[in-house]
């Protein structure tokens, strides 16, 4: 039967034949600037709410410093990067960190099951560096064009204003890449006990560039010296009954009493190529780099030692962007990172104003003060110019004074890019199920039990076709995973396993020894083990 639904179009009325992929040079990118469909979609999405953030609205923050070790693991940091913030020992770089939840509004409870934002602004001697990440080291999607749809599905229903499980899983069931993040966020890791007791991660892949113009791929992580602590649903409910802002209170009180939270900043490093030996693309932010192959290498420590003087002026008006990098740190072709780089700063210009970077919380430190030829706009309160610059020269180059270009780096980094321009989805999908299954098996029993209980409750609130497809997905991650969700929610496992693979995707191979499932055939699943019980 022909599909009778209306056709999706842009706001100009152009039919959209691919709503899943940015235009990019080849499968791995980079993305191109003429992505009109994406730009229209994401810039409209960035302006959907005022004045609070569309996402990460509920948050708190604190001031502190970063102190580099001068090494990356056992090697001098300068081997990998020329970024002074990572190489100059004895220099404490001022930082401001904003912690947040994602989906809820400004006054939502901090016990919500949700990823937590971990956004850090380094005010370096070479200007600001923003690292905008989460506590969990993966994300739901790997292409930025899907972001508005994902958030719409996770936000409250536009009619009932209720968050509905079916909306969440209706989106997830079409995106097996989300299974890894779902497995994390529906476990106790989805509710950190406090901001002080959670990890931070860049999630996206960047590059480090050294003095020779050589690049390596890098992911950044922050490991709490206080240890990692998470909550079960029952523990979170008990806290929420008494305090909807417990994490803000905990961070503020700890700093006030001098119990300064500390994280060790680490990196994972990989050579800058596509790594065909891996069954996932290292630029895919829905995947973790295995730490046994790419170990966490310490690079420095972050300490928070001062609370804001004014919540609105500092925490609420703080603005971060993934495009805010310093020399020695660069972009990779990660499609989520490239999409975020447009979206984040665009959001701040809309939310805070065209001159949000003039606010003290966002401005670079004095020794790296901004000096530009940019002028005017809403809420301008000073002119960016050097003290000895002619007031009449707001352009470059000029024979009458004004600003000049900075000296070029000794050896510039150049990336060779070629490929056919088009819309691509990754062909390396094996780990859409494999890493989620590995995560399920490595959870402790209590974490696995909490995960199953949360998913069972959600499946009971979903229409049958969504619940069946989700069980199909979970079973392909791990047989015990799918079986326990099906049994707990009263779902027919055999009916779920009879579903065909998703249209446009290859049938997933079961990622666990001893699998009995062959796509398209109904076979008896292997018996449940005593360990699974």
TrEMBL record:
<protein>
    <recommendedName>
        <fullName>Catalase</fullName>
        <ecNumber>1.11.1.6</ecNumber>
    </recommendedName>
</protein>
<dbReference type="GO" id="GO:0005737">
    <property type="term" value="C:cytoplasm"/>
</dbReference>
<comment type="similarity">
    <text>Belongs to the catalase family.</text>
</comment>
<dbReference type="Pfam" id="PF06628">
    <property type="entry name" value="Catalase-rel"/>
</dbReference>
<dbReference type="GO" id="GO:0004096">
    <property type="term" value="F:catalase activity"/>
</dbReference>
<dbReference type="InterPro" id="IPR010582">
    <property type="entry name" value="Catalase_immune_responsive"/>
</dbReference>
<feature type="active site">
    <location>
        <position position="56"/>
    </location>
</feature>
<dbReference type="GO" id="GO:0042744">
    <property type="term" value="P:hydrogen peroxide catabolic process"/>
</dbReference>
<feature type="binding site" description="axial binding residue">
    <location>
        <position position="344"/>
    </location>
    <ligand>
        <name>heme</name>
    </ligand>
</feature>
<comment type="function">
    <text>Decomposes hydrogen peroxide into water and oxygen; serves to protect cells from the toxic effects of hydrogen peroxide.</text>
</comment>
<keyword id="KW-0560">Oxidoreductase</keyword>
<keyword id="KW-0575">Peroxidase</keyword>
<dbReference type="InterPro" id="IPR024708">
    <property type="entry name" value="Catalase_AS"/>
</dbReference>
<feature type="compositionally biased region" description="Basic and acidic residues">
    <location>
        <begin position="520"/>
        <end position="533"/>
    </location>
</feature>
<keyword id="KW-0376">Hydrogen peroxide</keyword>
<feature type="region of interest" description="Disordered">
    <location>
        <begin position="1"/>
        <end position="29"/>
    </location>
</feature>
<feature type="domain" description="Catalase core">
    <location>
        <begin position="9"/>
        <end position="404"/>
    </location>
</feature>
<dbReference type="GO" id="GO:0046872">
    <property type="term" value="F:metal ion binding"/>
</dbReference>
<dbReference type="Pfam" id="PF00199">
    <property type="entry name" value="Catalase"/>
</dbReference>
<feature type="region of interest" description="Disordered">
    <location>
        <begin position="500"/>
        <end position="533"/>
    </location>
</feature>
<keyword id="KW-0479">Metal-binding</keyword>
<feature type="compositionally biased region" description="Polar residues">
    <location>
        <begin position="1"/>
        <end position="23"/>
    </location>
</feature>
<feature type="active site">
    <location>
        <position position="134"/>
    </location>
</feature>
<dbReference type="InterPro" id="IPR011614">
    <property type="entry name" value="Catalase_core"/>
</dbReference>
<keyword id="KW-0408">Iron</keyword>
<dbReference type="GO" id="GO:0020037">
    <property type="term" value="F:heme binding"/>
</dbReference>
<dbReference type="InterPro" id="IPR024711">
    <property type="entry name" value="Catalase_clade1/3"/>
</dbReference>
<dbReference type="InterPro" id="IPR018028">
    <property type="entry name" value="Catalase"/>
</dbReference>
<keyword id="KW-0349">Heme</keyword>
<dbReference type="InterPro" id="IPR020835">
    <property type="entry name" value="Catalase_sf"/>
</dbReference>
<dbReference type="GO" id="GO:0042542">
    <property type="term" value="P:response to hydrogen peroxide"/>
</dbReference>
